[in-house]
Amino acid sequence: MTVVKPVSRPKRALSNERAALLTGCAATLVLTMAACGGGSAGTTTKDGFAQVPQKDGTLTVWVDATRVAAAKLYQQQHPDVKMDIVTYDGDANGSNYLQTKVQLFNRTKKGWPDVVFSSQNNEVTWAVDAGFAAPLNKGLIPTASLTGFARGANDVCTVKGTVYCLRNDLSQAVLWYNAPLLKKFGYTVPTTWEEYQRLGEKVAEEHPGYLVGDAGDAFTPEIYLWASKCGGNHITGPKAVSVNTSSDACTKMARLMDVLIKNKSMSISGVFSTDFGKNKADKVLLMPGPAWYGAALFKDTFKIPAKRIAAAPIPQWKGETSPSTGNVGGGTWLLSQHSAHIKAATDFLKWVTTDNAYQGEKAPGFPAYAPAAEAWLKGQDASGYFAGDLGALKAASSQVWPDWGSGQFSQEAIWAATVKPGITQGKSIVSLLPAWQDSIVKYAKSNGYKVSQ
């Protein structure tokens, strides 16, 4: 029997800084060796970690609301497996909920879920030291399965050659556009950022009110600055980051955005704001954004009719020989070292990340597992919603610039606290780059990172 129930939230969440201080066996005295994945009575070292005695029982899986469907589908196809499906916030917006709960479980030596989904790509920055995440490439997941993931997809899961999680989906940025509207206005899809800016200037002059982008969300830097190869978030080691927001790659993208924000062809409302949905959704001509914009934003949120939305490669700077793009979100699956149901947990983990029954046919986002992504793309094409094929998403899946990274600190939180208020007040993004740098450095250091500038 499947039980779906929500996890109760703690009365008081820890701050990022306090959570960082509590992370890892070396940082806290209350964790025992057993709680941190060390040996204890009855454990057996296998697959690269000390495993507790295995037994039959209920498989506990934590998921966010979107992934409940995946867990239920697995239960439907595996009726012999007893499951307890628990919903939680998925660590959305860097809530640190999972980390806080694992710290509690480590202290009480009970309560760990067998498998957990996180909407964040940075969980291994604490989950390995905390003795929670089990190594997956030491015997649990076959090499043939691991090599099937898109190039670089599991980099965020890998620490010193060991894979500690599996990527659920990719959120590579592409250029979404309204195909019939673009044709009606007599425009063509821009292939360079220079062309993109000129088109934005023409739209502001010839069709005021229509948009070529949005700079109002916390994940704005992950679309524009990341794609531009801005060095504001170069994770160079488990606890090391290089920060440089004053490079040409940063400033030229900031200048482009400033021009389009000023002429109002780029919104600062945020695509999920009430204002945007009510007044601007039907005015979108172009919109750089992640893979999940196609269904989650244009189809489900904006209710844009079929045969209008299409995808193209995100623009590149003129003369660029190595195409790059950014990434907004995705998600990862982790298996607990404390699981007493390793075989069942591993089977679920492999199924939920690679099987076409979910990833190829039901998943809302672009699967990280390449064979499932092929099936997913065919399904999207067959749906009849999009105005063309989504081949641009496949190409972009291997073009996410690797020198950005997924640190323990949240770039989205930093941008929202530092840059977004300034934009709202009418300040230019160029003028805010130094403050952005200072804030990144502060957040990184508070999380124990060695920072180079």
Short description:
This protein has 453 residues and is of the alpha/beta class. Helices cover 36% and strands 17% of the residues. The longest helix is centred in the C-terminal third of the chain and has 18 residues, at 429-446.
Describe, in plain words, how this protein is organized in 3D.
Helix 7 packs parallel to helix 9 (248-262) and helix 16 (411-418) crosses helix 18. This protein starts with a strand and ends with a strand. The protein is an alpha/beta fold and 453 residues long. It has 18 helices and 19 strands. 36% of the residues lie in helices and 17% in strands. It has helices spanning 16-22, 68-77, 97-108, 124-127, 143-146, 179-185, 193-206, 220-227, 248-262, 274-279, 293-301, 342-354, 356-360, 370-383, 391-396, 411-418, 420-424, 429-446; strands spanning 2-6, 44-46, 49-51, 59-63, 83-87, 115-118, 158-159, 162-163, 166-170, 173-178, 213-214, 231-237, 240-244, 266-267, 286-290, 309-312, 331-335, 366-367, 450-452. The model is unreliable at 8-39 (pLDDT under 50). A seven-stranded mixed beta sheet has the order 1-5-4-6-17-9-18. The protein has a three-stranded antiparallel beta sheet with strand order 15-10-16. The longest helix has 18 residues, at 429-446.
